[in-house]
Design brief:
Length: 416
């Protein structure tokens, strides 16, 4: 990972936790959730409080969860709202936490000046036993609390004060008086602080991906009619049970996605985005190049050197590279192109979510799914399937690691 860390492709954008005070707050939150404290004296956390360093320390990537049906989160600072989510348990986690910070920004800013917040994220199911269990998910209820129950204490104090002011003889009621006094001793005067908040529900999860059961996709169209088709795809063969469940590598899955108009090959898109095909060609060529050369940078080659490489290693270059070249010529000549005339491999490589049927907020689910279909999709793998990207990256040769790094920098980060 050293190459990625040095160029900001791993660990970038995280919130650094290094002060004893913040580490203590984080540990108190862990303990309140029933998770053992970290012994690290410095680590980083993402938007939901997940830390790659603590994950490595505990040898548990799911340490911030007792069950993937009910994950948890920790907020130490309002600054986490600008952090990425490095290991989302669900594809909608970013949208869910964007909503959280938008709704509760004032309270989060107030509370985190004093202590951490921990979140219980519940969907009414204690554990997933089968992929079809995921069809019952329609919403997540998010509750926020501090290790010393500050949020609940603020709610109780507010009610106590209301009762005290409501009763004309409250000063004579020793029980009410003592409760108000005890609340003040426990939490201080919370009346003017922005702390009280109720749990809220996030329900925008019609189409999603989850890490549960080894990775499951639940795909639905944007049409909320009762007769639409739901497709379930799993990443692990061992969890494939019953009918109506496909594996991500099944040939028929792509046909289903096209038939239901969830995915398509858009010739208009290819005409408007010529660099799309350029990226595909260079991903293929760079893969072959790094197998044959360990001391030359692919992106440093001149056009003449690239042509020489093509001539020398023509037999090693996949046929699909030359099919893309032909497609580029057809697009440049503005001739009519029939998608069905393209090879199935090329259709897999060119497919994108259908913007007419798939809202923008759900498209990342389909981009992630296609990373299992298109082996040359370096950018989409890095953007939408980081666990697989980092896992694959570790096994690359040093030459390929540098190529992949430069590819992302050139076509993704520098193109933003």
């Amino acid at each position: 990972m050293k190459v990625l860390i040095q160029t900001g492709l791993y660990g970038a954008g995280l919130y650094k936790v290094s002060s004893p005070q913040l580490i203590e707050r984080y540990n108190h939150a862990l303990e309140a959730m029933g998770v053992s404290a970290t012994e690290l004296d410095e680590f980083n956390i993402d938007m939901i409080g997940w830390s790659p360093e603590i994950s490595e320390e505990k040898e548990d990537i799911f340490y911030l969860s007792h069950s993937l049906a009910n994950p948890m989160a920790i907020i130490l600072s309002i600054d986490q709202k600008d952090c990425p989510i490095y290991f989302p348990y669900h594809s909608f986690d970013k949208n869910m936490f964007d909503d959280l910070f938008k709704r509760r920004e004032t309270q989060i800013m107030d509370i985190t000046t004093q202590e951490a917040l921990w979140l219980d994220i519940d969907n009414g199911i204690s554990d997933y036993q089968h992929p079809k269990d995921l069809l019952f998910i329609d919403a997540f209820d998010i509750s926020l609390e501090t290790p010393d129950q500050l949020v609940n204490g603020a709610k109780q104090q507010k009610e106590l004060v209301k009762d005290f002011l409501r009763e004309s003889n409250a000063w004579e009621d020793e029980d009410i008086r003592n409760k108000v006094i005890q609340s003040g001793k426990d939490f201080g005067d919370l009346q003017k602080r922005q702390i009280s908040m109720s749990s809220f529900r996030f329900s925008d999860i019609r189409t999603f991906y989850t890490e549960a059961l080894g990775g499951v996709f639940v795909l639905r169209s944007s049409d909320f009619s009762n007769d639409d088709i739901t497709i379930i795809a799993v990443e692990k063969e061992r969890v494939k049970k019953g009918s109506g469940i496909d594996h991500v590598s099944d040939k028929k899955l792509f046909s289903q996605l096209v038939e239901k108009q969830y995915m398509h090959v858009s010739i208009d898109y290819l005409r408007r985005k010529p660099r799309f095909l350029e990226r595909k060609k260079n991903a293929i060529l760079g893969g072959v190049f790094t197998e044959q050369n360990s001391d030359v940078n692919f992106f440093d080659m001149t056009s003449a050197q690239t042509k020489g490489f093509l001539k020398k290693y023509r037999s090693e270059i996949p046929k699909i590279f030359f099919e893309i070249e032909r497609l580029e010529k057809q697009l440049a000549s503005n001739v009519d192109i029939n998608v069905d005339d393209l090879s199935q491999e090329l259709q897999y490589m060119l497919a994108i979510p259908n913007r007419k049927t798939i809202p923008k907020k759900f498209r990342r689910v389909f981009y992630r799914l296609m990373t299992y279909v298109d082996s040359h999709s370096i950018i989409n793998l890095y953007r939408y399937n980081k666990p697989k990207f980092y896992n694959d990256y570790v096994g690359f040769s040093e030459s390929k690691k540098h190529f992949v790094r430069d590819f992302i920098l050139k076509y993704y980060l520098c193109a933003k």
